[in-house]
Amino acid sequence: MSSNSPPTKKFKKTSSEVGTSKTSNFLNDIEAERKKTASSIMEFKFNKKRVRVLSEQKEVPEWAEGVIYWTFRDERIHDNWALLYAQKLAIKNKVSLHITFCRLTQFLNCSLRHYKHIFQGLEELETECKDLNIQFHFLIGCAADILPEFVKKHKLGAIVVDFMPVREHMSWAKQLADRIGSEVPVIQVDAHNIVPCWVASDKQEYGARTIRNKINNKLPEFLTEFPPVIKHPFNSKFKAQPTNWDEADKTLEVDRSVVSVPGLKAGFKAGMAELENFLKKRLPKYSTDRNNPVKDGLSKLSPWLHFGQISAQRCILEVSKLSKQYPESVAAYREEAIVRRELSDNFCFYNPKYDKIDGAPNWAQTTLNDHRKDKRMYVYTREELEGSRTHDDLWNSAQIQLVKEGKMHGFLRMYWAKKILEWTDTPERALADAIYLNDKYSMDGRDPSGFVGCMWSICGIHDQGWRERDIFGKIRYMNYAGCKRKFDINAFIARYGGMVHKYTKK
Question: What tens digit of pLDDT does each residue of 181-195 get?
């Protein structure tokens, strides 16, 4: 096998089958489009640029009895280039197909809220796997530690892994390749971005304006329909143990006080239902309503996109079908869901200090340092911020929304983070507190977009210098009066109940 392609063997055609029996017309129509594109991944021209071989071993060994896909960031069956590539490898080598999720005891600041969402989605995925003759293994531990032995024991001849440009996952993938890569290939597939991160650009981009054309020019090559995942034609010599989902969270060492968001359903079906709602109800006014925190104008898809329970590429394919009816809204959504989203991955992939002041541009580091000792009128502890106990009722309301609903409107998230810079004693603590709160409560925390959002607000990445002022220096400034001009802040405050708390000087 070359570094980017699997070995070829004869393949006997298999009819495509759907892993779910009760689906909406929306899902049925999409499945019909997949089948129209190709009967299976074997009849589809897979773009090898989506693939990076991380290991010394490049070829699937002759003794292989299966291929395993380690899912972490893209936890879905459908519209998943990584799983499709794993099935392509397995069919070409006439072996069984496996998926594993390796559950950690803790991951960054992931709370019970996030793990519950993960487990609900994986439970649906496990059911689909049974229908598709794919073995699903719910394993406990770090993949880099447990997969080498698991792979050897069961004679699995290749490991396909997700791409996620945060240092922990990048490190695990490298460790996995180092530990077993001389025996079986460890292959990374970017199934999260439309244009693979390493293809979009070979360097850290300055901002949206420098990466936009690079991505848009490559969309004709990468923004394609998906083929279907088919019922796998080769049986496994060993069966996966059924997962006891009631016990899945028992040994987690996480904050259990952060409970699930009421009414938020996880999984592919729920995510696709929300996509359908967006297309019908909110997309028509997306271009005008998305920046108003009081209006119901956002896609609301981030919980499913973050955990990879639905595909951003699928969202773009469906939204783009309405470009003639709603050209401005479709253009606005494509800018957010393609350019801005993939710019975030670019930043984290090429900047190892993506969550530190040291990762900011030189001008921003200089200006923040110049104003490090400026007098702060208000200084709050992390606990006061977390408890929505500031003098600013709008900020408190935004924090309440984050805690209760696991989300915050994008415009207010900028204001929220910038006020943390203004109300903490150092830029370093401001950034740490913003990331901590976002990761702990937001459904899309611990994500490149979240890191970039905090870094943009506090450290000026993907931005430019503005008029100099106290504390902020040349970092872009936002204030309460500006929010009042932007939207009806009283309506937002009334909705979430943020109060004005008397400030106690420290």
Answer: 999 999 999 999 999
